[in-house]
Amino acid sequence: MKVLQIIDSLEAGGAERMAVNITNALSLQDNVNSYLCATRKEGMLKTSLNDTVGYLCLNKRSTLDIAATKRLYQFIKNNNIEILHAHSTSFFIVTLIKLFKPNVKIVWHDHYGNSQFLEQRKSKILHVCSKYFSHVICVTDSLKDWAMTHLKTVKVAYVPNFVVKDSVKPSTILKGVDGKRVLHLANLRSQKDHFTLIKAFNEVIKESPDYTLHCVGKDFENDYSAQVFKYVEALQLNTHVFFYGSKEDISNILSQSDICVLSSKSEGLPIALLEYGLAGKPTIVTDVGNCAEVIENNVNGLVVPKEHPKALAEGMLQIIGNTDKAREYGRLLKHTVEENYSQDVFIKKLTTIYNAILNE
Questions:
Q1: In what helix (H) or strand (E) does residue 332 lie, and over which residues does it extend?
Q2: What domains can you pick out in the chain, each with its CATH number?
Q3: Global pTM value
Q4: How far is residue 249 from each of residues 103, 200, 260, 269, 306, measured CA to CA in Å?
Q5: 305 close to 287: Cβ distance less than 8 angstroms
Q6: 156 beta partners
């Protein structure tokens, strides 16, 4: 079996991490040749690819870049690739390939993060392309329901994300006091709702002034991130809230953190949440996407309403005030992630889908 994962870039995002993790996991299977193509640009995740993975970067300059499409076609032809596993917006270029190479099979992986706002999703081109897909994989139940009603693909499956521990050399040193660090692992995007997080943390330090908040994720240097930084300054939190940008050594960062949080107003199934769980950290999430599928409130973590700073602050203070309970949350969340969101569980489901479409 020869499979090519296709993703826009290798920047540090959830869909990108999944594409790399799937590529690496497949490369360890005895009966699979695994490849990955970054269509637009590379990124820090390139260094995470296994040495046995076949790799191509197209440096595509526009949506309809004929030269890049030809290079991809030739790569697929030269390697006798049978399955094109396209992630997110990469569905368009693989559909073009399908028109000229009808025997290839397309699997489209929907990582859409704004799952709370699916009614606003623009999908005309996706709807047209979907008739060429053999299978659609969705990271949440709501995305599966949407695909079944909006796309032409007959076979649609919900397959939860999985997580693996990275082996990147430690390089990041978090500021603040040991034992009193809160981690927020998310790119600086509006759906991640840093404003609710910062407002909540401002209440936390009124009762626990030694705690610090550490935000790890890509700064796109746009209006949103500028407003976030301005808000931190306005609340005079510069000595309590720190930003690190994109980082590769996530496991190392998690080892220095004591409480983990996601304050999103919309999500699919965030990789960050699974990374928190794998590290056994007490975690608070907002009730969006499939977060509540992973965390059962007051059992293996805390689930609070989205865009509710008071509830988020109370959740953090609850964990700060009860170390035994916090430790139990982390232990049970780690068990949940290892049992239900492991690489082995995911790859077994994925290869079943691959084999089915190859035998059609």
A1: helix 323-340
A2: 2-162+342-358 (3.40.50.2000), 181-340 (3.40.50.2000)
A3: 0.91
A4: 40, 27, 16, 21, 28
A5: yes
A6: 136
